[in-house]
Amino acid sequence: MNKVLLMLLCTFTAFAQKIPVADLQIKLNPGATEELMYGFADGDRIIFTIEADGSAISEAAVTEYPAALKYKGQNVKEEKKEFTVQGNSVYVFKFVNTTKGKRNCRVTIQRVPKRSETKNFNTAVKWIKVQDTLWTSVTKDVVVGYDTLHRQKTRRVIASEKKYEEMVFDKSQRVNAKSSFKGTRSGLSFSLPANTVSKDETKKVVAWAYWVGVGEESNEFWKQNRKLITGAVQGAVSYFTSPLGGIAAGAITNLMLPVNGEDVEYALVNDQNYKLFLEEKAYRSFDNGKGIAGYKRVTDADKLQGKFNIALANDNLMQPVDVNVKVSVIIEHIKYKDEKYTDKTITPRYGKKIVREPSVVVKEIAVPVGK
Prior knowledge:
5-stranded antiparallel beta sheet; 4 helices; mainly beta; 17 strands
């Protein structure tokens, strides 16, 4: 015999070998259903045989998982079927007894591999979890366009805004010496301009400063400071007119002060502490100092309105002192007006539309164990 033909014959014999998968006696109680699941390799030929022991089996079916029906028989006594497997697959063998009596049958399942490498294919079945996307059609309100509406409106806007200095206090006070036996403590009281707010304008104190100076020495230095300020701001846009206004505005940080002359102890206090001061009791102050002259800028929000006192004390034995106190405020003045403008409103327009929405579900499927 030709050697090549002999080799082909041997190979065909090896591939055509029937490999048993199942050889079972199945007992079906009345109304019972029995299912068998096995995995098969691509190209396998399945040989399925069923023989009823006695009365026929109500139903027998073979399905390629999950739902491809390959065979279905009714009142089966004896049947032999063959199926060819496309791709590695799981087959379900189902037996049903719809009668009131018991039914028995013998079932054999064999596989004939197409290729030698699948000869030892594991026909057991395992369950694995996989994700699946389901698409659902729903009706939704979606934007189909936009409507634009223009309307004339009126709003309040700033017509003008300016700041300016206002000298609200300029007064002198004599403070007695110790030898006068008339008391060496005195002071001056002043009030800041009240804020005004109306529909058309607002006036608010945004900062202020005070000056305390003793005698002609401090007056001379005040004049020198004024000359310097006048020269500095000449030809420039400025809203303060005095050295104290420059301090209050924050545009000037230092003023010249005298070093020779009589001094005075001073403190910025409220009414309650001013009374304690005059009674020579312990008191608290917002600011204090001692010298021939001094000044202070105030911007704290809680100190921009109301009444204040400059408390003065002279510790000189024989010499009374004349103390000048000045207070300048910076006022912010804003005027308002009505302004017409066009307001644009864009409103989405909605309509019904059928859309498909995905949802991912996890399910278990049967697959062959295989190699």
